Here is the input.
Amino acid sequence: MDGTAVQDRIYTSARDLYRTKWEWDAVYWGTHCVDCYPGNCPMRVYVRDGLVWREEQSGTFQTVEPGVPDFNPMGCQKGASWSQSLYGPDRLLYPLKRVGERGSGKWNRVNWDEALSDIADKMIDAIEAGGPQSIAHEGTPEMATVIPTNKFFSVLGGNGLDLNGSINDFSIGLYETFGRFSPVSSADDWFHSEVVLIWHMNPIYTRIPFYHFIAEARYNGAEVINISPDVNPSHVHADMQVPINGGSDAAFGLSLVQVILEEGLANWKFIREQTDLGFLVRTDTGRYLRQADVEGSGPEDQLYQWVPGKGARKADRGNIFLNGVEIALEGTYRVELADGSSVDVRPACDILRERLDARFTPELQQAITGVHPETVRAIARKCATKRTNIMLGYNACKFYHGDLMERAQALLLAVTGNWGKKGTGVRCWASGMHDGAFIAVNKPGPGAANTETVLSGRDAAIAMMKASDPTMTTEIAVKKLGQLSMKFQRSGGGPGSMSSGGERGADEAPNDSLSTPPAFWWYWQAGYRERWNTPGWGDESLPRTFDEYFNEALDKGWWQGMDFPRPEEPPRVLIECGGNMLRRTRGGKTALLPTLWPKLDLIVSIDFRISQTGLYSDYVLPAAQHYEKIGFHIPTPHLMNLTFSDRAAKPAGEARNEWQIYHALFEKMAERARERGLTHYTDATGQERTFAALPKAYSMNGFLLDEERLADEQIRDSALAGTLPMGTSLRTLRDKGHVRFIDWGLSPMALAQASPIKPNETHVPFRDHTERGMPFPTYSRRAQFYIDHEWFLEAGEELPTYKPNPDMGGDYPLGMTSGHNRWSIHAMNQANWVILGTHRGEPDVVVNSDDAAARGVKDGDRVRVFNDVSSFVTRARVAPNVKPGQLISYNGWAGFQYPEWSGANEIEPGMVKWIGFAGGYGHLNHLGAEWQPVPAERWTRCDFAREER
Amino acid sequence: MKVARLNGELADPAAPAWGGAEAVSITLGPVPIGAQPTAYIREAWAGRSYGTTGAATLAAASDGERLYLRLEWPDGATPNGEFQDAVAAMFPAGGDAPVATMGDHDRPVELWFWENGRGPLRLTSRGPGVVRKEAADGVAARGDLAGGRWSVVLSGPKPAAGKPVGVAVWDGSNDERAGLAAVSQEWLQLELA
Amino acid sequence: MTTTEAKTRQLAWVYDLNKCIGCQTCSVACKVLWTRDEGEKHQWWMSVNTMPGLGTPKGWEDMGGGFDPETGKPRPGHQPTRGEFGGGFDYNYQEVFYGGTAGKAHLEPQGPREGRWAMNWDEDQGAGEWPNSYYFYLPRQCNHCSNPVCMSACATGALSRTNDGLVLRDEEVCMGDRFCMEACPYKKIYFNYDRHVAQQCIGCFPRIEAGVAPACVRQCPGRAVFIGDLEDEESSVHKLVKTWKVAMPLKAEAGTGPNVYYVPPLSPHRLNDDMSIDTETPRIPPEYLESLFGPGVHGALNVLKGEMETVRAGGASEILTTLIAYKWQELLGPFTVDPATLDRSNGGA
Here is the structure.
């Protein structure tokens, strides 16, 4: 036989080996709905023999704006291997019941009926003992979890902890400035930037699907400037690396502003119209000049500007444009008051400049930030003349004084006119647009007619609100309605939920739950009071203790209706559906296990895996994952698309989707209550709820249990609400996988974008302000840099300033920083065997080579990281790119990856900045996910030492 | 050498039955560097010693159905985990195939091949390491390491008549594989009883 | 012995290191697609490393192989060991989640910790000293060389080149002798200890045959990699490599004629001792880049910088327009078929 011929034959067969590996039976749409934000990567899910084989980015986006790169092929390594979590060794397949102590890791496999019977009994016990408000959840932003969970708690009358308060991705400084924390450009808009300041963000880790827009902007002429203490991964494709002392960013930002004002490079018209810096401040009190001062009565929030030659004039609250009127930004002026006296007033800008000149010249800031003065000047001049885009992540907000950093950043944009036009702005996070997802589950019943009822109810409520003040925007009206609902949620009498249109019929169940900022939960139920009052861990410059501020806030009713659960009403049941309280909470087990856990008679974790919280739960119930249920990703302005995820395969093992789990639980509660002779209970507002009605109320007579029908109605309801093109349905979405939104809808974070959606253009927020003069939803109706709330004045924070980071955790030489890692979405991919192969496969902290050497630590050594709070054991990764004095513990490792299951959050004291308890001032009022006290942990003080095994 | 006619567990190199078989020592030598099949191998191994196993002991037996060849040689250093100790019995597969180069392009040899941790293979070799896998055709092998010595029994269907046999030994600790072997310098004629 | 199909085109990859963010999506895409079977757990046909670094396998740059530039003869190389590749760890999932250890056991790789290594072990460590430390990301795969030393080193003729210029292995013919692994100067060939064959990137040839770009290219979210026919003068890969000379192979001096090219990395300015910016000195030492990409790297970086200056001044640049790749499909060369549209219920047959 001829040798070559044999070779060919074998060769062909070996090739067939690989050809037949690349085979599938069916293809579905999928995306990863588990709190991956911005996420929304459309994937194709390839199925073989009824099981998900693999996934691949779809690459199906069309160009949005001609001349701007498209979004393809959105995805990342986590998304490209999610199938390996679906059937991985950490996938939870059966209900488990704890048999040892909590956290012992001893379980019995039980069947669903047994698990739900016991859970139902304990929930009824809790209701009997403390009402339904003693049953709480924290949760996760995953839509397929949020909606069924919220519905469950609404029908139950339970208590939901405000998720954003515990996560703290809340850019509090942006909120203080803009009355919203959520400006978000579409990611393709980054391409328009001329200067990209990567500042408290690490997009090379955290924006993998979108990073290319930055690289492409650079090829399109942009300069990329990376500002971080460490030479972090995002320096790699930067033109300039600015090493900055940890936590000193506000001083650096204010110095940029100082240069711009000093050198006359500011956009003065923009400052006058868009900001409150032209508003008059009394020199005697430091408070704004108000109508009541001048006229003796009138709206408290009517403020004044100075027109040279004409005098003080009332600032227009309905439109911010000046229409050619030149208001003063400097000088001192005399104003006659209603009582006949007179007072000196100055534009806020004048005070700002005086303070900047006194403290934040480039030379003065160098001592604080370590940044060379000429670097400050060079960057300031660039920002003043070019479209500047601050790539802000959810990092500054996790510093104790992160709000001051963000206010300085906002000020930089203000003085350079860098919002409301393409390639500019700053970002946090926002959602919304898929209004139908919520309408469909809260309307009186299925069908378009019910949707129209809800929609007209929403419109009527807004119209009523606006009628009380014609200068109100829709956004302001929606927020005011929400704020009022919060205040009256425990007492009734509020304006009612915007999404539950119409009066409740006699046979319908109540449909509202409580929502509380978690700060009160921590303070009263989890032992944080002592930590927050520890001298040195908080702001030492304040004249009063933490508790004095806390008590004053309650006394003044700033948190009326929200300051729960009080000590006398302890929580009894915790249901974490997708949430992971023990990993997320700053303080972790150290804080929660001795304090909160003993109060809880029942802890249930509903998840697709056993999380850190699951390990310390009484039951873990297996949930279906995306690819196993129909769902949508949380929509975001980053992408402006609704992204669809189909049911490609049956849930693994005995997993069920959340609707089925909660419905079965209500059925079991109804059954057990009947057996126990119980018929009804009373919720926190005094309404009666009937056990027997719970299942039907939850499922809307079965409607919500039909995945296909529910998804179809959700999509159609968004079309009816005007956010999706008419005709969009489950069928069309199943065909295309994703569809671009055409309008914002009525959720506050979507309205916060304040820009029109144009079909062939990138999205940049705030165009309504710069192009139409629309007011901001702040106290002053401007981007507000002077906050004359009494606490801000007391703290010296009425204007953006710099304050040093407090010694959270004690007097130690190192500052612990963090940020999302490259390898996981929070803890969710940490046990994926493929992802574990892309790094060292175990947690570590990254430390500077010299700091390591000084402690006798080599790369890979086991180390203990410690402070006054606690300690944890991990490995050291030694790298010259870490700033001396900095220790980086990237966020997202699961506690169970560390010895003793104790991760980095164990040493975080979980401080909250007292000022988050301020209220009763325009935009400083709570609304879900918005203004509230939030935990800080960046630059927690610590040290580390070699740890022998 | 004579193939003994024996009964017992001949596939087991430790079987007592092997006590009844004649054992001969076979002198081995490295396959010449110049005969190595690729320039890379010649360059990389020009200065390295290989084929360092100097001799192996061969015994042959048959139960009437199968031919059993028991090979024994001293174990080298502990392998590094990359390459394993191995042994092969070689038979000319047509013509007067050269044994010291494991056949050549036109005159192949057949190998019954065993490697520590890996099942037996039947191979055709057309030069040092120039091998191709063939259907197993009943070839089996079993090896034991005891007292610092490997003993391996290779077996296959009993041939119809006597035939020449050669031996190749690879020391895994010295990265020996393919043509980097210690091989018989001449064929040894097997005589069936 | 070796069969080489009549070559009709030469596929080439161009990785833009100014776009690569080290996310490993290419690595993971490749792994989930091709190397999940027995003996493949530690194999990463595609991998990304932080440079400078020891990379994968550990210390690969000092393992020899390739051809001697003086004599043209193959140069002896080290066969990377299982430990030098590292990775492929087993974890104690059962013990942690169900073992009743109450925290005594945590999820960690099993086996000795001392001397452990993995595909991306020295991620983001780099070189230099703060604040002038530096690093960048280097994706690596089989270079599908035009003069593949692996192919010529193989005793059994298991390797051959296809008419697309891909170097493929016949695993039926491979005897697991690993001379290819020694000879390869890039050390991108793995050994399957279970199946006793060597394995490496197959260029996603089943996808190529169907008009679909390789997973590493099509799944790269950084839009950092181009594929195309190097001999097609209209292709992006030809223009970047041959016309504009802004992309060059890695360690070309090894003489194997690699068909994977790199647009070399720019880097931020260095800082002077007083923390002012030194605009004259790039952060990554040019001599280091030359050690990877050859002397042509300096010209390539100058071209890139010049083009960027031009664009910043309001001008146009065909090179940068190409690198931006306004439409994603421009990266995929002729392989623009959407795989989801294919019927592959029986291997596409």
